[in-house]
Amino acid sequence: MLSKFNKLLIVSILIASSLLLLNQDKTFAAQRIGNGLYIKNNVTVMVNGERVTFNDPILNKNGQLFLPMRDFYEIIGATVYWNQKTKTASAERNGNRVDVTLNSRTAKLNGETVTVNVPPFLYKYKTYVPIRFLSEKLGGTVKWNQQAQRVDITVGNEVPSPSPEPVPTPIKDPYYLHINDKRIAMADPIITKGGRSYIPAEYFYENLENSSGKWLTKDQFELQISGLIFVFTNGSSTIKVNDESVATDEQPFTRSGKMYVPVKFIVNAVGDGGNLRYLSKQKEMYIYLYQYMFTSKFLEKSYGSTKVPQNTPNAELSGNRTLLVSDNPETLTAKVIPNSTATLSEQIVKSSESVNEHRVFGWHYNTLGKNIALGITVENTSQTTSLQVAKSQGVFKRSGHSWINYDIGLPIADHVLNDKLQQAESEGITIAPGETKVIQMYTLSNSYIIGFLHDLDIQAVNGGESSYTIRTVLAKNNEDLSTIHSEVVPINPYAAHPRGVWPSSTIVSEFPTYTIGDAEAGYSISNGKTDHFLTAESSLEQRNGALGNSGHFGINYIVNIPVANPSGQPQKVRLKLSGRGGLYSGAIKVNGQVHLIPTLKPGKEYIELPSYTINGTNEVITIEVMHAGGSNLPMAIYIETE
Questions:
Q1: Cβ(449)–Cβ(364) under 8 Å?
Q2: 279 with 285: CB under 8 angstroms?
Q3: pLDDT in tens, 129-175
Q4: Angle of CA points 16, 21, 23, to nearest 5°
Q5: Span between the terminal Cα atoms of the chain, in Å
Q6: Which residues belong to any copy of the Copper amine oxidase-like N-terminal domain (predicted)?
Q7: How far, in Å, are 3, 288, 472 from residue 158 at the CA level?
C-alpha cells in the first residue's frame, strides 16, 4: 500500500501535469460555479497503480487546480498549522515547511519567499490550496492517457530537492501584448494582412481563464474561450464557431508551426464583446474582453442633448473612512524625483479610536526612464503600542497608453461598487513600535500609468492611542519600501491633480423632492461648488502643499432622490445621466445592481437607467456613483415621469 504522502504527492503531480496538458487538449468535463471557478470532473488519478479519490471537488481557477487544504495536508501525512490572524496554512513533513496565505501570491518554502501564481482561496468555508504550486516543488513523474482521461503518477519514498527554475532568455525588441491587465513580451510578431491583425492562438489560451487550444489536424486548430469553440483552418476564410460556419474577410494561417488567428474576429465574438487597439509603431496590442475585465455590464448610449442642470443643493461628507489622495505630482520625472527614493504623499494619524478606517487613492505616470516600485506603507510611530492591520484590500490597474479612464478608472470603479476589492497579504499583520511595514507594493513599467485604491483598517493591539504615518512611496532601484521615511515631495501647483487627506471617502447628496407628473428635473454633482468639500484648505495634511479633489476621485458618491406620488398608484420614472464638463465615464449602482457608464460626450450623449417603479405615495430612489479616474466632471442626473 502507498503511504499517504506518496498518494497525494502523486495526485498533486498528476494534477499539475494535467494542467499542462490542458493547453494541448482540454476535454476534461467542467462545471462552472462562478467567480472564475470550475469543478473538474471525469479525471482518474492513479498513484503507483492505485486509484485515488477525494471527498471534495477538485477546482480549477485561472488554469490551476486546487484541493481543500486539510484534505491535501492529511493525505501527505504532514503536520498542519493554521494561523487565523494571518490566515496562513503551514505544513511540516520530513524537515520541510511550506506556508501559504489566503488570497496571497507570496508563500514560504523552508523560510524562503516564493511566488504562487494563483493564491489560495475560500470555497464553501474551506481553504483551497494550489496543487500545481506544491507539486512543482515536490517533483515526480507523470504520464497522461488522453483516451482514458487518466493520469498515472509514480513517486519514490524521498522528497526530491526542488530544482532551480530556469531563467528565461530576454527577447530582444519584442512585441508587447496586453490582454486586459496582463502585459506579455511576445516571442512572436504581430502580423497584419489585409488591414487585419493576427497573433498565435496560444496567446489567448495561455492568458485567459477557462481557455484551451489544440490541433485537430495539421491545418485545423481548435481554440476554446469561455464556452465558445472556434475552429480555424489554414488559409480559409470560413471559421467555425460552436460548429456553425461563419464566412469572414479574415484568413487564419500557420507560421513557424503556430496558428495565427484574427484578433478582431475573436474579440467581437466573445460574450459581452470587447475592444482592440494596435499601436504598430510602438509594437503594442491591447485586447479587452469585457467579460474578463468587468463584473458589470455597460449601459447603452443614447444620443441627443440634455438640459442645463442645477447644482445639487444638499450634500455632505459621510462616514469615518479617511481619504488620502496621491495624485500630485502625477507625472513622475527626474526633476520631480531627483533621488532614488521618494515619499509621494503621507497621512499622520494620532487617534484613540478603537479602529481607524482609511482609503488610499493613487494615480501616477512613470516617465523616469526605468521601471520603478511604488507602495503603501505604515510606520508605527508609537514607542509602546503595537498596531494591527485589521483590514487590507484594494484594486489596481496599469496602462501603457492614454485611454486611462477605460483601462484604469472604470475597472477600479467597477470593483469598488461591486465590493470586489481583493484582500492583500498585509491583512492581519502586526506592526511593532518603531516598525514600518509595506501594506501593498506595485511595479510600474516606464511610460506606464497606474491607478490604485486601497482600503485599510488599523487598530491598537491592546487598545489605547494609535500613532502612525501612512505613506505612498517610490523606489527606482529596488530599495526596501519600508525604509523610505523622507519628507513628502512638493506638489506641482500648476497641474490640476489632487493631493491631500480628507476626513471621509463618502459624500451623500439629497435632491429636492420630485413629484410625479412634473417636468424633467436635473442636478449636477461633483460640480466644484455646492459639494466641493475636498479643498486644498480643508486637507488634513499641508506639508509641501495640497491640491483639492473637486472631481471626487476615490469617493463613493451617494444620491438620494425623494419622489412624491400623490395618486398612490404605481408610476414609472426614468433616470438619465450625462457628463457636463468633458468626456465622462463611471459606474453606478441602483437597486443593488451595478452598471457601467460608457464614455459620454457632453451635450451629445447620455445614458438611461432601467425604469424605476414608484409604488407608494412617497419613496426615495438611492443611487451610488463612482467616477472613473481620468473622467471630466461634473456629472448630471435627471429624473422624469414616463
A1: yes
A2: yes
A3: 776 566 555 444 545 454 555 555 554 444 444 445 445 556 678 99
A4: 115
A5: 74
A6: 47-152, 179-271
A7: 12, 46, 47
* Residues 310 and 298: beta-carbon distance below 8 Å: no
- Position 9 scores a pLDDT of 46
What is the Cα–Cα distance from 50 to 75, expressed in whole angstroms?
14
313-336 burial by CB neighbour count: b if 16+ within 10 A, else e? eebebeeebbbbbbbbbbebeeeb
Mean pLDDT of the chain: 85
Percent of the chain surpassing pLDDT 90: 60
* SS3 assignment, position 411: helix
Closest CA to 504 of 540, 464, 461, 454: 540
Rounded Cα gap, residues 479 and 459, in angstroms: 28
The residue that leads in pLDDT, 281 or 182, is 281
Rounded Cα distance, 258 and 34, in Å: 32
Nearest alpha-carbon partner for 491 in 336, 333, 335: 336
Give the type of residue at 395: V
Model pLDDT, residue 324 = 99
Query: Cα–Cα distance between 359 and 105 in angstroms, integer?
Result: 22
**Which residues does 172 contact at the CB level (< 8 Å), separation at least 6?**
none
CB 98 within 8 A of CB 111: no
DSSP bridge pairs for 99 = 90, 108
Per-residue pLDDT tens digits for 391-444: 999 999 988 766 788 889 999 999 999 999 999 989 999 999 999 999 999 999
Exposure of 390 by Cβ count < 10 A (0-12 exposed, 13-18 middle, 19+ buried)?
middle
C-alpha cell at 244: 456553425
Asked whether the beta carbons of 489 and 274 are under 8 A apart, the reply is no
Cα torsion angle, 229, 20, 134, 152, sign: positive
Grid cell of 417 as nine digits: 461598487
Q: Read off the C-alpha cell for 442.
A: 506595485
Distance CA 182, CA 53 (A): 36
CB atoms within 10 A of CB 305: 11
pLDDT tens string 532-557: 999 999 999 999 999 999 999 999 99
d(CA 201, CA 230): 10
Higher pLDDT, 326 or 161: 326
Q: For residue 273, give Cα distances in angstroms to 248, 269, 599.
A: 17, 6, 16
Sign, Cα dihedral of 20, 24, 28, 33: positive
Beta-sheet strands, E only, within 216-255? 220-225, 228-233, 238-241, 244-247, 253-255
The number of angstroms, rounded, from the C-alpha of 352 to the middle of its chain's C-alpha atoms is 34
Residue 247 confidence (pLDDT): 93
Cβ atoms < 10 Å from Cβ of 386: 15
* Alpha carbon distance 8, 67 (integer Å): 11
Per DSSP, the three-state class of 517 is coil
The pLDDT of residue 333 is 96
- Name residues whose C-beta falls within 8 Å of residue 123's C-beta, 6 or more positions apart in sequence: 37, 59, 66
Give the Cβ contact number of residue 641 at 10 Å.
17
